[in-house]
Amino acid sequence: MDQDPGRETPAAGAALQDRIAAALGIEPEAREALVRSMLERSARGAAGYWLQLFLAMGIASLGLVLGSGAVVIGAMLISPLMGPIVELGMGLAIGSPFLALRSFTRVAFSVVMVVTSAAVLTLTLPFYEVTSEIAARTSPTALDLLIAIFCAIAAAYTTARPGSDTTSTAAGTAIGIALVPPLCVVGYGIGTRVKSIASGAALLFTANLCAILLFAILCFLLLGYSAVSTAELEHEELAKQKPGAIRRVARALQVFFGLRHGWIFRVLMPLALLGAVYLPLREALARVSWQVRVRTAILRMLDALPQSTVRSSVSVDHGSVAVRLVTLGRADEAERIEDDLRDKIAAVAGMTPKVDVIAVLDASALEEVAASVRASSKPIDVVRREPDLVLLRQELTGSLVGAWPHAAGPLVAWRLRFPENEPAVVEVVHVGPALGAPAADLLGRALSRELGAEVAVQDRAIPRDPIVAEPAGGWLWLQEARPALAWVDDVEALHGCVEVPTTVGEKPGGEIAAVLAALRSLPALRSDRVRVREGAQWEAVVSATPCAPPETAPADAGAPADAGAR
Questions:
Q1: In the beta sheet, which residues pair with residue 458?
Q2: Is the predicted pLDDT of residue 558 greater than 50, yes or no?
């Protein structure tokens, strides 16, 4: 096919391109056939492309989360994303605006689909853990860019010379260069809202994309694909396209792509992107090199120490170095080792490290300590001082009154206990809501400061609201009222008011009479601080004030009423 005007290649250059292509088994007819196949790509294959890409996304995302390298490799083999990227490189190499624009559109939509789907899939996961497979794709360096360059050349070669002898090369290229897995890690970072993961993986994908584009363009130019005429093929394909954005932009780019030296601008575009990503990748490589160098030097220093190190941990990160050692020996020896390591590591790392050396006494050190203790030990006279309980009670009463929270209700009584081998305990009894653990702890601290000794507070809250039940619920009422009435028997400052339903009209041995009999057996009912009266329901109230005398005594509650009036 005749070349287009403006595409004429110098004879020497064309001859060199032909010799290189022939050496790799690529004939001129094969070059034209490859370009034609890319331009005439049927839309019927789009469904298969998107299905494979979605499957690769799912497999790669789950493989990354599970930390399975084999599963991630399987996703790389399935992924068809390499195809449109190489086609984009071909479009830029031969100056085909239609091929370049169509391939760029597919690549852009593929990136958006994979990242979005991976983010949604991440949100449905039951756990989030940064596995080694995810972490490996969040810190790219210039070495990753070098890998991408070699894989890009292999991808261009397998595209230009398809066949059974290049099948293994194509598979190795798919495994060697990561396209879908980094995009899945970007989605994982977005789903987990971890910016460092998303940005690191995005940098890795961008580096791989730029390397494929640039070196695919260079390889296709070197193999003479720029000599293939595409004007007629592009005209036919554009005529098939429906009026739309791609058709309008492709026609507008034809003028720019048709310039005599337009290929220079087309090469400069991915080259500029590659240069932009190279700077952070070079910094990352320098950081990794520093970490490896410092860690290696520290490990050599630790190996040179005497054989007394029990355990060691080394943490070398960008801008920080931390070393922790546990060694057998005396404290002065540990301090000497700590100072020595700090100076040596600072000289290697160029910064002040954090070094901790902990000494554990060995047998010889223990013997030295024991000997020094025996030599300096003298009998010690211990004088036991009994506390002045009267003075202590006065001080504690004043401190309690001053620190007591009024929201907890009136303080009725308190007790002081001295548990064995434990701090003193102040048991406070009050009518109102419970203090709760935080308030009890704060009250204990206040008392400890006032008394100059450690004191703990134990809360005994008496319900302020009446305990009420209908006549038929006497047994449940008794179970709830028994603990409250027990406090009346235990604390002299408390009083109890009990109301019982009348037994008039009830059959002998009825439920009310049975509950009254059980009520009479309570120790609190033998106290004159409990008043019992007849009413319409069961009711019990415990308070710090006496109850009004009962108007009438219930028929079967004579003993409790008499006891209350005693």
A1: 427
A2: no
Query: Which tokens is 122 given?
Result: 């991440």
- Residues 242-263: what's their mean pLDDT? 58
3-state secondary structure of 469: strand
Candidates 456, 458, 450; CA nearest to 430 is 458
Burial of 19: CB neighbours in 10 Å, binned 0-12, 13-18, 19+:
exposed
- Mention every residue, 6+ apart, whose C-beta is less than 8 A from residue 364: none
From CA 439, how far away is CA 431, in angstroms rounded?
Answer: 16
* Helix-helix angle 262-303:195-222, to 10 degrees: 130
* Tens-place pLDDT, residues 70-107: 888 888 888 788 888 888 888 888 877 778 888 888 89
Beta strands in 476-520 (DSSP E): 495-501
Q: Which of 352, 371, 353, 351 is nearest to 361 (CA)?
A: 371
CB of 81 within 8 A of CB of 179? yes
Cα–Cα distance for residue pair 220/159, rounded to 1 Å = 10
pLDDT higher than 70, residue 116: yes
Predicted TM-score (pTM) above 0.70 = no
Contact 257, 60 (CB under 8 A): no
The token pair that represents 79 in the structure block: 């992924």
Residue among 139, 84, 110 nearest 289 (CA): 139
Taking only the tens place, the pLDDT of each residue in 159-187 is 777 654 544 555 555 555 668 889 999 99
User: What is the four-CA torsion angle of 55, 57, 59, 62, rounded to 10 degrees?
Assistant: -140
Percent of the chain with pLDDT over 90: 6
Positive/negative CA dihedral, 523, 526, 532, 534: positive
Phi, psi of 528, deg, nearest 5: -75, 0
